[in-house]
Amino acid sequence: MSGPFLDVDICVIGAGSAGLSVAAGAAQLGVSTVLIEGGRMGGDCLNTGCVPSKALLAAAKAARRWRKDAAFGITFQPPVVDFAAVRRHVHAVIGAIAPNDSVERFEGLGVTVIKGYARFVGPQEVTVDGTRIRARRIVVATGSSAAVPPIPGLADVPYLTNETVFENGELPGHLIVVGGGPIGIEMAQAHRGLGSEVTVLEAGGILARDDAELVALLREDLLADGITVREGARIARVERDGAGIAVVLATEAGEERILGSHLLVAAGRRANVAGLDLEKAGIAYGPRGIEVDGRLITSNRRVFAIGDVAGGPQFTHVAGYHAGIVIRNALFRLPAKVDYRSLPWVTYTDPELAQAGLTEAAAREAHGDRIRVLRWPYHENDRAQAERETRGLIKVVTTASGRVLGASILGAHAGELIHVWVLAIGQGLNIKALAGMIAPYPTLGEIGKRAAGSYFTPKLFGAGTKRLVRVLSHLG
Fold it and tell me: Which residue ranges are tagged as binding site?
């Protein structure tokens, strides 16, 4: 095979969050590094995922705020939404962050960046448009793409995914969302806040991975916003209806047609493995992605797979975590393994829904009835009252002895409040560490401290403690 040839220490395939982190770390440690990307630098998170979705949600929250501020004695006229300007805002946010992920920045770090699509030609060798790269270690970080379910008629109608919805130039009159996971629910609330009619169709239950009690409360909020949520929906087919789209549901009574102007498919993700020729490198993979062990090593011991393509939790922060595991294994030869016990995730609705570690249901499955479930409502928090953010609840799950297993939060800034619980679970802390923490007043963080303190309430104010106090009082 003729053409340019590179012999390097590390070759990273994919310039999303996972690949960029490995490439930056390796290059700054003085390791010769090649980074290959066929699409846009920054991958899904920057261009079509986390960043634009949160920017759109921020715009929607601003549009929704006028409904709440009357409680403060301040009133506004209903907002006028300039959807083209909202779209410019979303892309401006992407543009502001893009330099951090740019070719120029990584070349400045010493990374050799090659634009193109890589494919394996051997156990330690890949090729990109005629350039051959041989590497001591190869990292596959090609991410995932929107999965398109086999719905009859879907191929014959225009539809959006997370990869195209942020390019949409008009505010949907009626957005039909197929899928009730985090992406579907976030986009449903964002578009509803900007003025669209929204219907969510979910085959099972919405946000199935989260705590059922908190999801039930969030469902109430979505319905109060005017979002139609149809769980257990069976889609028979989709078809054109004039200038719009009809989703036909199969019901016990026959069929039901739901008419919309736009259709968003948010029915999960699939790992990007097509075209890599993984077989030529002896790399095993399946429907979920590339098969890896606890150290993220594939069936080819010189190849790692990280991020979404590795078939595990599909979050940007997991991709960054995976990058650290690879750096320790590949460069420092440390036997680092993934540990998801304290894994957090957040759905950025209003209110936010955050989770770390085990939900109550998962804890009961693992530990039976040998757990404690602690709760504290937002409305019992003074800061929440002052800011009129009283909708919400924290749930903390511990062992009978008080070791923290998980925390679930629904409420304002839940994504920020979950951090301390990630630390507690990851470090194996006992609930007394959180109960004894001094929390500044008035803060929302006191909600977690109060929940932790409730672990000790039955014993602290029980009959035995009261007898002890009486005895001590007689001693003068």
Answer: 54, 142-144, 179-186, 202, 268, 308
